[in-house]
Amino acid sequence: MLFNLRILLNNAALRNGPNFMVRNFRCGQPLQNKVQLKGRDLLTLKNFTGEEIKYMLWLSADLKFRIKQKGEYLPLLQGKSLGMIFEKRSTRTRLSTETGFALLGGHPCFLTTQDIHLGVNESLTDTARVLSSMTDAVLARVYKQSDLDVLAKEASIPIINGLSDLYHPIQILADYLTLQEHYGSLKGLTLSWIGDGNNILHSIMMSAAKVGMHLQVATPKGYEPDPNITKLAEQYAKENNTQLSLTNDPLEAARGGNVLITDTWISMGQEEEKKKRLQAFQGYQVTMKTAKLAASDWTFLHCLPRKPEEVDDEVFYSPRSLVFPEAENRKWTIMAIMVSLLTDYSPQLQKPKF
Q1: Is 67 helix (H, G, I), strand (E, B) or coil?
Q2: CB 282: neighbour CB atoms within 10 A?
Q3: What residues contact 164, with CB distance under 8 A and at least 6 apart?
Q4: What phi, psi does 337 have (nearest 5°)?
Q5: pTM, whole model, 2 decimals?
Q6: Closest by Cα among 97, 243, 93 to 171
Q7: Among this protein's residues, is 303 annotated catalytic?
Q8: Which tens digit of pLDDT belongs to each residue from 51-61?
């Protein structure tokens, strides 16, 4: 039932909670949590099942409700510390992680390449071992996925991918929480990706089918997603009875889509390709013309920062745009990741209907 949220407080009886902060957040029957993520790494959603992804979204909604709506103080990470390695600058990843970890009682430590000797004066192996002795987890925002793989192999604490050239899993969890809040369920939604075959798309491809969503992808020729990731995504779609299509026509990908999604065409480190990329992506701007082909309940997502050539103001600032709730949800989902990897806490909010 909509807005009928029940919370188990202090192991007492189930009580009816107040109206939830987001509309259309449907709840199913309360289920005992059987998902255990404590101690694991989060390098890519490829390594997580659909139930595990849903669990992280459930925990995100739980923390958001208890802290933001009810005003509870939950020092679940009291006495714990987090190393934050940033090779690339960030607004949302840094703020969501620092404020979220601190809000849960922990101590985040921000580290840039000017602060540590990551892979230069000190090997990744040595860095991983040192950080393991001083922190409880590491979130690393790096250029190369292979660096994350080394850190995870050598560290004895959870390593979390804050962004790499191949994946951006923490962004996708925020996207899914936003859609869950708006539509009430993820199952059966059609995502229409219009843009680059980049790390954001790769993370969607590694997870959408697992939670029951269809995916329609449009990329310019020469900018398609990684073929190995595409092959695995096709397998996931088959296993989960969802649809996956790839095209070079942005209007074809938009047709019937519930969610129009795009991202920057020029990521950090690709500045020299700007002129070539802008030419290749002509016709890929998301506009109301694009939206006319989408489903009647279409919405729009962009992980930010946004440039006007990617999506025009009419769509970006429209009531259909969920980009700012999406940005806020970076905080609640990263908090849920930290709690799930570092504690035995189980959500008290009724499990959503996914």
Answers
A1: helix
A2: 9
A3: 141, 142, 143, 144, 145, 147, 148, 199
A4: -60, -50
A5: 0.89
A6: 93
A7: yes
A8: 999 999 999 99
- Give me the amino acid identity at 325: P
**Within 10 A of 112 (CB to CB), how many other CB atoms are there?**
14
CATH of 171-267+277-327, one of 3.40.50.1370, 3.40.50.720, 3.40.50.2300, 3.90.180.10: 3.40.50.1370
In this predicted model, what pLDDT tens digit does every residue of 103-140 receive, in sequence order?
999 999 998 877 776 767 788 999 999 999 999 999 99
Q: Is the peptide bond before 352 cis (omega within 30 degrees of 0)?
A: no
User: Homologous superfamily of 81-167 in CATH?
Assistant: Aspartate/ornithine carbamoyltransferase (3.40.50.1370)
In the chain, % of residues over pLDDT 90: 82
What is the structure's pLDDT at 1? 37
Q: Contact at 8 Å (CB) between 186 and 212?
A: yes
* pLDDT at position 26: 41
Lookup: tokens for 70: 């009810």
User: For residue 157, which of 76, 47, 39, 45 has the smallest C-alpha distance?
Assistant: 39
* Catalytic pick among 84, 174, 186, 303: 303
- pLDDT(222) > 60: yes
Q: Is the preceding peptide bond at 30 cis, omega within 30 degrees of 0?
A: no
Give me 105's structure tokens.
Answer: 């009682």
Structure tokens at 219: 């990329």
